[in-house]
Specification:
By secondary structure, this protein is mainly α. The protein has helices spanning 2-30, 46-54, 58-78, 84-93, 100-134, 137-141, 143-156.
């Protein structure tokens, strides 16, 4: 009986978390700050541009923060639903423990943290590729080569 009660609260809570993440992404995308989710030169304009100019190293730190924040929000919306079976199994395994809620929260936080670190690594890799391309006028003029190389590397992987 108690397991059914926990399950009855767990699934709606997770559904609310996922729906909130989707809503936040949609609202962010519709707002004047929606360009911060894109690859454009957004760090040079608006509030973010002001912060980037005011803080030493602000452009890189703010850019990374916004990218990782958007990344974690996106994976909460899109990837957390696929972890519901895992979380349900974990919830059932820890159902009799007094700290079961804390353990479930740690699993979710750990999941988001690992993907957040991956998002930061992907952003740094993107920054490195962009920096390298900008060093070559030929690559800037033939940007398709960079895209083709990235797809070839991903395909090889």
């Amino acid at each position: 009986m108690q397991a059914a009660s926990h399950r009855g609260r767990f699934l709606p809570l997770m559904a609310a978390l996922i729906a909130t993440a989707w809503l936040a992404l949609w609202l962010w995308g519709q707002s004047p700050y929606g360009r911060y989710l894109d690859h454009g030169s957004w760090a040079e304009i608006g509030v973010a541009g002001s912060l980037c100019r005011a803080l030493p190293g602000g452009r890189d730190a703010l850019t990374a923060s916004l990218v990782v924040g958007g990344w974690v929000l996106m994976l909460s919306a899109m990837m957390l639903p696929t972890t519901l079976p895992l979380l349900d199994i974990f919830r059932r395994l820890t159902a009799r423990r007094a700290d079961r809620r804390w353990l479930t929260a740690l699993v979710i936080i750990g999941y988001l943290a690992v993907w957040g670190v991956f998002g930061l690594a992907a952003h740094l890799a993107d920054w490195g590729v962009t920096f390298a391309v900008r060093q070559s006028d030929w690559l800037v003029a033939n940007v398709w080569v960079t895209g083709a190389a990235i797809l070839a590397i991903a395909g090889g992987y």
